[in-house]
Design goal:
The structure holds two protein chains of two kinds. By secondary structure, chain A is an all-alpha fold. Chain A contains five helices and no strands. Chain A has helices at about 1-25, 30-50, 60-75, 80-100, 100-110. By secondary structure, chain B is an all-alpha fold. Chain B contains 13 helices and no strands. The chains are: A mainly alpha, B mainly alpha.
């Protein structure tokens, strides 16, 4: 029972900040400055979410770095997002399995159309 | 179904098509969510949390990092108010995400729709939706996107409850990069054509790193770090490179 109340409170403090701006700001006219700020939020937030947390996402900084580099290269090549994600996973897997960078290169060649 | 090239910008189309577009956009999110949700369920079980509470948390809260934090804090004997406060701080960034997303909704969208879409705002769904090339995001697209991500999260939690053996650690580690690779795959196409966006990205990477590593600042909890870094650098972008209404970044 105590845990259920906890979960419900967690749900409320999570949902309310998600909901208020979407319901309230929708049709409001914002100043150009604030509107510009909100346009830059996706880029700023994604960058802040990625780094440095990505370095600790696999339990091994080297393999995380390998996965990041492969993801970045595939993304620069404008490949489909699923290719980027699967490529990064494979890069980490190969790095951890083999512990050798040459296999990453092989993996990359596999994705070049 | 998937071409190797980036998908074209969303076109104006039927509700059904928009919903399907949303489901398709959620595919990489699902790939990232399922192993995390499975892990969440397994860790929570090992901490002695009842199955019913574990699944209820995924159903009602739907915010990965704070769910892990709550389980960790429960096991170290934190009191309820501390856990609720930590959840609030950790998820407060969604306030800014929702504010940003609110500018991209259909103009005639009712409050009930907006409130429904709001439930599914996560880092990943926000990233995917907000970096779509079109200016206005159709409601059925957002519902499809959020629904698929939610189903993967709740489904993954449910599956985790019944998986008595762990995924091999090697596979789990490799999947840890999935959501970050998704972010990279969304971010890079958005910044490569725009100098202002590129500048904001570099500044945000730097600010986030400073807050993470510099002694004294590195005690700032993750939730505040993301909020601070996002606000400061998006604010800089707005001052240095104002965007006109309807103009692409």
């Amino acid at each position: 029972m105590k845990l259920m109340i906890l979960v419900i409170c967690m749900a409320l403090v999570t949902y309310i900040p998600r909901m208020l701006p979407l319901v309230g700001l929708r049709r409001m006219n914002l100043s150009p400055r604030l509107a510009s700020f909100l346009r830059y939020v996706p880029i700023a937030a994604l960058s802040s979410l990625i780094f440095p947390s990505i370095m600790y996402s696999t339990g091994n900084i080297q393999s995380a770095l390998a996965g990041s580099v492969v993801a970045a290269i595939l993304a620069v090549m404008r490949l489909n997002i699923m290719v980027v994600v699967l490529g990064a996973i494979m890069a980490v897997l190969m790095w951890q399995y083999v512990g050798n960078s040459s296999y990453i290169v092989t993996g990359l060649l596999f994705f070049i159309p | 179904m998937y071409s190797l090239n980036s998908s074209p910008p969303l076109k104006k189309s039927s509700h059904r098509q928009e919903f399907v577009n949303g489901l398709n956009s959620a595919l990489p999110i699902c790939l990232g969510y399922i192993p995390v949700a499975v892990t969440f369920a397994i860790i929570s079980q090992t901490q002695g949390i009842p199955n019913f509470i574990i699944i209820l948390m995924s159903v009602l809260v739907f915010a990965g990092a704070s769910q892990f934090a709550a389980v960790g804090m429960l096991s170290t004997g934190s009191i309820m108010s501390e856990i609720i406060l930590a959840t609030f701080v950790l998820n407060l960034r969604h306030l800014i995400f929702s504010a940003s997303l609110s500018r991209r909704l259909e103009k005639d969208l009712g409050s009930v729709w907006a409130a429904l879409i709001a439930f599914g705002v996560t880092d990943e769904s926000f990233a995917t939706a907000s970096l779509q090339a079109c200016d206005i995001l159709p409601r059925y697209y957002l519902i499809g996107l959020n629904f698929a991500a939610y189903a993967a999260w709740v489904g993954g939690t449910g599956a985790g409850l019944f998986l008595s053996t762990l995924l091999p650690q090697l596979i789990k580690n490799s999947l840890g990069i999935a959501l970050y690779a998704l972010f990279i795959g969304l971010l890079i196409p958005a910044v490569r054509i725009s100098r202002p966006a590129g500048t904001v990205m570099v500044l945000a990477l730097a600010t986030s790193s400073i807050l993470f590593w510099v002694p004294g600042l590195n005690t700032i909890p993750t939730g505040w770090r993301i909020i601070l870094s996002t606000t400061l650098t998006a604010g800089f972008g707005a001052l240095a490179f104002p965007v006109e209404r309807g103009e692409q970044l």
